[in-house]
Amino acid sequence: MIRVVVVEDEKMIRRGIIMTTDWQAFGCQVVGEAANAQDALKLIEEKKPQIVLTDIRMRGMTGIEMIESLGQDHNMHFIIISGYSDFEYARSALRLGV
Questions:
Q1: 67 is in which domain, residue-wise?
Q2: What is the CATH classification number for the domain harbouring 17?
Q3: Burial 14-34 (b: 16+ CB within 10 A, else e)
């Protein structure tokens, strides 16, 4: 099973992503969830997911900043979600190879 961590500051959205997706059908298992990037960094270190699904804008540290702080020495893929139309955030993600 592919290990997935979901990072989203809005609880209803985070729970919706987790509960409405048939993770097993994709060969995935959600191994953790976090409401902010700081908690996610600890969770990622502990759970070692192969996929991190993260919101792009969160209070404190953004999803982009979280990915940058993990550096290039990781063996995981990132899926970035956003309810915003600010293309500059997407451009930053593309520069990181996400």
A1: 2-95
A2: 3.40.50.2300
A3: beebeeeeeeeeeebebbbbb
